[in-house]
Amino acid sequence: MRATDGAFCVAMTDLHVFGQRDGVRTTEWERDGKKYDWGNNRGLVLLRSFNLIHWTRTNLDLTALTCPTGEVDAEGNPLPWSEMGCAWAPEMITTEDGRIMMHFTTRFQRGRNHIRYVYISDDFSRMTSEPHVLLKAPADDQGRITKNIIDSDITKTGDTYHLFCTEMGHPRHAVSKSLTGPYTFVPFNDGVP
Question: Whose CA is closest to 130, among 149, 114, 112, 117?
Answer without folding.
Answer: 117
